[in-house]
Amino acid sequence: MARARRLRCALLLAALLAALAAAPAAGRAAPAAIRGAQVLTPDRVRVVLDAPPTNAAPANFRFAEALAPDVPIPVREVHVAGRVVTLVVDQKLSARESYRLEIHDPPLARDVKPSPWAMFFTVVLASALINNFVFTRYLGLCIFFGVSKKRDTAVGMGITFAMVMLVTGMMSWVLFMFVLNPLRLQFLQVIVFIGVVAFMVQLLDTILKKVNRPLHQKFGIYLVLITTNCIILAVPLLNAAANASATEAFALAMGSGLGFAIALFLMSCARERLELARVPESFKGLPIAFALAGLFALAFMGFSGLSFLR
User: Fold this and answer.
1) What fold is seen in the domain 34-114?
2) Three-state SS annotation for 180-221
3) Low-confidence ranges of the chain (pLDDT < 70)
């Protein structure tokens, strides 16, 4: 009997101690937080809080560029709609840049960065259409004019080039980030990148010779020239210069390969139709091909301004 009484007293004491320990925790409010922040061009920032702000004065918010956090961007107006706060600043903002948002009361801070998916599609779109390596930067013209005479050859080279671009771009990024950078051997990047491209092209040359010999014969010397192609070497160099992330490197490699394939396909379609046209003798061959490339370049200027970041 006495033992059961002692056991009941011990259980009551444990329950009382647990209730006393939980009481202060239940009385404390959850810490405030910024749930999301997004730049709305040209001069607005949308902020989502977990609760309506206690102080909606413009002086309560500090907004600055991530690269210059000591130089704040003045906040002109603050519009509150429940937990959503819209800041109007005195400077034109870019949805591609990163910013730093701070709130004084309550003390909160958050980095405002572009959406990863929007950034990925923007890089692919920019490298394939807006800044096409052939029609805006005039790189890779040797293969471009040499392989674009026939549509089937152009399609095959476009697919081959895109695959080589994607694989070599990512392999070069891995070597640069995890080998050259840690060992401080950045001055060897050109030699390393050319070696990676040469290895991939030689492997592809061997595979095509065994699997699809007619296509290999159509490519001819231009398949080997991929090794020293300006575009396929420019992508790893641009990634290295910009210290790009894995997503950005993958997007640039995919977009540039896709852009080159599109350029080859369009040019081959136009040059096949030219065979049925009456072209002056002095313009036959490369002259009319250069004129066509110039017209395509003018057409691709219409893609300038496209962006997924709005």
Assistant:
1) Immunoglobulin-like (2.60.40)
2) HHHHCCHHHHHHHHHHHHHHHHHHHHHHHHHHCHHHHHHHCH
3) 1-32, 307-310
